[in-house]
Amino acid sequence: MLEDHEILSTIEMVKNENLDVRAVTLGVNLFDCISSDLDTFKSNIRKKIVTHAGHLVSTCDQVGKKYGIKVVNKRISTSPIALVGAAFKTAQLVEIAQELNDIARTVNIDFIGGFSALVEKGMATGDLALIEALPEALASTQRVCASVNVATTRAGINMDGVLKMAQTIKQAAALTADEDGLGCAKLCVFSNIPQDMPFMAGSMLGPGVGDAVINVGVSGPGVVKKAIERNLGESHSLTLGQIAELIKNTSCKVTRVGELIGREVAQELGVRFGVVDLSLAPTPTVGDSIGEIFQALGLTSIGVPGSTAALAMLNDAVKKGGAFASSHVGGLSGAFIPVSEDLNIARAAEEGYLSLEKLESMTCVCSVGLDMVPVPGDITEECLAGIIADEMAIGMINTKTTATRIIPVPGKKAGEKVYFGGLLGEASIMEVPHHLLKDRFVTFGGRIPAPIHSLKN
User: Fold this and answer.
1) DSSP 266
2) Contact of 309 with 244, CB cutoff 8 Å
3) What is the DSSP letter of 168?
4) Cβ atoms 79, 204 nearer than 8 A
5) What confidence score (pLDDT) does residue 109 get?
6) What is the pTM of this model?
7) d(C-alpha 125, C-alpha 129), whole Å
8) How far is CA 118 from CA 31, 50, 79, 430, in A?
9) What pLDDT digit, counting tens, does each position of 287-334 carry?
10) How would residue 187 be classed by pLDDT, with cut points 50, 70 and 90?
11) Angle at 372 between CA 252 and CA 198, to 5 degrees
């Protein structure tokens, strides 16, 4: 049972500290929609998604209003389209993406994920067709999100897939050049992709998850920051171990809130409850920043020496608190450090505290990877593939999920500003050392073998 002061502190989180449920995502399995006829397939997926998701938004609003906790984003994830749409050609897959976009508009959700492929061991015909459809699919839709998994700890890294994705990212940026390469902001390249993640742009419904499921993404960076500041103000003698315990307890309360909302939404919709993803996910709003937590911990800025250690402590404490609060923790669960989506992190990069190299080192201990990183538009495909491969290697060797969401901004150079708007935010383009190199390493192709510790059975 919660003590009175714990109940009051949770109410304070909701009222004054930006606590919300960041995303409720309905996963819909599309394998029973498969058809070799395009019109039949589109009709099948529309019927199934609308049947399950027709009341998603109103139910989330109703449950959120009941508890006084806002559900910020309502989303849908689907089975990987490269699997259920494997019979179709590239042009047909673009049509499917446009159909998904229209379905998302019909049920009034902000993003639909699952325009995805799993190619860690190789690219099948359907996978290749989907990857080649990505640039036009992302340029011609507003709500469709895509992901491609090119590496796992068990399989190694598909370097053909890595290079192909670098080329695809460049093409997607070119087709959305008038929006600063916005198409790339809806595309993630993964190592060890989760099957049950509610956060976009990488969300999909894995083949083993079930027919329909509600997954919840909680957040609360502002809550964690306030808790640290409040307790440091009351006591000047806290150790880092005690601060970690404070973060853990705060994360526990946040997770309980998320599970409460998620279970009730699932019950109202008549579908199964899946997982709580307890990732700390920032927004461009002041006071809702991961970067500000670093300053609350006594660092000048995220990116200075000590940042990786602080992030490791934060990530671990969040996971421990969430795991205690719920038996069904999944997705990514930890701390996101997206450059443009966090005002404080974007400022740290602009002022030189945070470099691309330091950002990469920090991804060794956090949840995601190089997330929402704008880079010069003239970066070579080979250099971009090298950056992706490095991040995939971190995930593969450390048996963790990592990803890249990189935006080569057409016509712009390091230091220039880029504006994506809304939750995607804005940032200065990060400098990429030697971004014009065309090293041969990434063009050898083949598969980098899985590490020795993958041989577990």
Assistant:
1) H
2) no
3) H
4) yes
5) 92
6) 0.91
7) 6
8) 15, 26, 11, 29
9) 678 888 899 898 999 999 999 999 999 988 888 888 887 778 777 777
10) very high
11) 40
The residues with which 403 forms a beta bridge, in sequence order, are 190
CB 128 within 8 A of CB 74: no
Q: Supply angle C-alpha 235, 236, 239, rounded to 5.
A: 95
Which carries the bigger pLDDT value, residue 21 or residue 45?
45
User: Rg (Cα) of the chain, in Å, rounded?
Assistant: 21
- CB count within 10 Å of CB 446 equals 10
Residue 373 to residue 385: CA distance in whole angstroms:
14
- CA 185 vs. chain centroid, Å, equals 11
DSSP code at position 58: H
- Which helix (DSSP H) or strand (DSSP E) does residue 100 occupy? helix 90-106
Q: Both tokens of residue 100?
A: 């998904």
What is the distance in angstroms between the CA of the first residue and the CA of the last residue of the chain?
40
Give the integer Cα–Cα distance in Å for 191 and 387: 13
**136-159 per-residue burial string, b: 16 or more CB within 10 A, e: under 16:** bbbbbbebbbbbbbbbbbebbbbb
What's the maximum distance between 2 C-alpha atoms anywhere in the chain? 68
Q: Is the pLDDT of residue 67 over 60?
A: yes
> For 313, what's the count of Cα atoms within 13 Å in the CB-facing half-sphere?
18
Q: CB–CB of 164/131 below 8 Å? A: yes
Helical (H) or strand (E) element with 253: helix 240-269
Which residues have C-beta within 8 Å of that of residue 12, sequence separation ≥ 6? none
What domains appear along the chain, each with residue ranges and CATH number? 19-191 (3.20.70.20), 218-257+279-447 (3.20.70.20)
3 state SS of 250: helix
Confidence grade of residue 7 (pLDDT, cut at 50, 70, 90): very low
Q: Once rounded to an integer, what is the mean pLDDT over residues 207-223? A: 83
Q: Which two tokens stand for residue 317?
A: 């404490």
Q: Show the CA angle centred on residue 219, arms to residues 11 and 405, nearest 5°.
A: 165
Return the closest-CA partner of residue 31 out of 83, 97, 77, 101: 83
pLDDT at site 329? 78
